[in-house]
Amino acid sequence: MRIERTLMRSRRLVAINLLVLAVAAGAARAASKAELWARWQQQDAASAQKIDHGAWDAFLKKFVAAPHPSGIHRVRYQAVGPADFKALQDYLGALQAVAISRYSRSEQKAFWINLYNALTVDLVLSRFPVASIRDINISPGIAVRGPWGAKLFTVENEKLSLDDIEHRILRPIWKDSRIHYALSWATLGGPNLQPLAFSAENSEGLLEKAAREFINHPRGVSIQKGRLQVSSLYVWFQEDFGASADGLMDHWQEFADPPLAEALGKYSGGLAHDYDWRLNAAEK
Fold first, then answer.
1. How many domains does the chain have?
2. 1 assigned to some structural domain
3. Is 80 contained in some domain?
4. Residue 195: which of 3, 4, 65 has the closest Cα?
5. Which end of the chain, C or N, has fewer beta carbons within 10 A?
């Protein structure tokens, strides 16, 4: 019986894996590999210094609509006034002055996540209203759509893009698939922008919360009309989620609520993937 279950699981996973590989080439946004920028490996493990993210925390609590009936946190971009926008830019200015290499690894993790999310919100606000963040075409290259490749920020005299923070710092240094659930692309299809700032103390809990929120929402993982439907994130970045069908299933089941976990355990078909690029703006 055990052998039969193993064989059934193997056939199921082969079917899923073949489809994942087949659709990967058609991804709407080509995934970047995690390639370490070694300059950012430096840290001071003994440092007790703290970075003040209070301004960002206050902004999030004021303008992120969570919980939302849709299960997707929305941002009240239209409600952000000049004083609020200035406070956000002052916060980003303060982060530019941080010598992050002198901080502990846990402080660095929160710093990079908050910086990424604050920069994304700042980008949207500076061009609002927009229908999608992909309409902010400032990345270098003719065929590139969106803002992720543009050098927007300077830390320790190094110019950085959003892609640098995500793919050359956060992913390769921490090697934690939950990082994907912490970063906001300002879309309805992506993980929630959390309504509070990350810190060294709350990062672990927030990463767990964010993973569960996304995986247990239909835009993350669901079985619809007998077919497994997942976010395109799992296709674009499958190397971070176990790099195989087995790895994907194990990852989903780790964070799935009991009904979804049970359904995944019995599933034996292929999968479809999708991503909603519309802006995560609040309706009012």
1. 1
2. no
3. yes
4. 65
5. N
- Is 154 inside any structural domain? yes
Strands 271-274 and 227-231: parallel
Residue 210: domain span: 9-274
Closest C-alpha to 28, from 184, 232, 268: 232
Cross-strand bridge partners of residue 230: 221, 273
Tokens of 253: 């089941």
Of 277, 174, 172, 191, give the one whose Cα is nearest residue 234: 191
DSSP 8-state symbol, 189? S
In a domain, residue 39? The reply is: yes
Q: Are 31 and 60 in contact (CB under 8 A)?
A: no
49's tokens: 């210094």
Can you give the pTM of this predicted structure? 0.92
Contacts for 138 with CB less than 8 Å, ≥ 6 apart: 147, 150
Mean pLDDT in runs of 10 for the chain (284 residues)?
A: 42 47 45 92 98 98 94 97 98 98 98 98 97 95 86 97 98 98 98 98 98 98 95 95 90 97 93 96 88
Cα angle: 279, vertex 230, 6; to 5 degrees: 165
Helix axes 105-127, 203-215, angle to 10 degrees: 50
Q: Which residue has 């406070």 as its token pair? A: 87
